[in-house]
Amino acid sequence: MGASAQKTSETNAWPTKPLKILVGFPAGTSPDLVARTLAEPLSKALGQPVIVENRPGAGGNIAADLVAKAKDGHTIGVMINGNLTIAKLLNPKTPYDPAKDLAPISLIGTAPLVLAAPANAPGSSAADFLTTARASGTQWSYGSPGVGTVGHIGMELLNARVGMAPVHVPYPGYPQVVTAMVGGQIQLSMLPPGLAQAQARAGKIKVLGVTSAGRSTLAPEVPSLSEAGVKNFQLEIWNAVAGPATMPKPVVAKLSQLLSDITRTTDIRQKLFQQGWQVVGSSPEGLANRMRADYAVLGKIIADRSIKAE
Asked: Number of structural domains, the chain?
């Protein structure tokens, strides 16, 4: 048997034991829900059990490092964009390098953030509000769920683009950010669309614009920031599946194709959409391209603003 035929045979035989999906966040969180949504149909497609294992800590980087170091050929991870792009920029002590130690498999879903303000915020549009924000300088503040989160870096990117200077106030999570906004302690934040819309419907906050390039199917009634005059502004949160860099390319390709097929089924697409995700189901190259693009944009603002999350 030739080398290529042997590789094909090995790939066809893979997996030879249960597949493990590591998640760097607790049960019930968004990455965990995504992993468990994919696990059952992936198990059926592979003919092997697929086990989701939660290894929370360090913003998902503990699990990502375990995936990077996995040697069994049967360990992958569902990760957020930070784990796959800017982890080492934010904290040089991060024990893995996303670009070198992880193999992109598939971009599963994306979502914009929503620029939000208190219900009594000035102005009738995002453009009006941003004009007031610029004039307010450091008298205003914005909240995020922590230093180095996309909510933090995204606001710094917006500040740089429109000339604002609100003071950053980190909170333990989004619920505390919303409480502070409703209470008038902060004037801005970038929130996940589901949370922002629920609070806006309750009359507690005002939504100003989504951070995607155009309008989002997750919040179709909310204009994009580009429509508000912040031209070519694009920032999204996303989740993806990756394996160790040592995972054979044919196995990566096989997994990617299966995940792409699974996410395109009506049932799984609907489940992911209900969880707040616009489904992508990309190729490994598609995910790699997204990783590079985000690294370039977010890496620049991290360097310019000297953001560190240690």
From this structure: 2
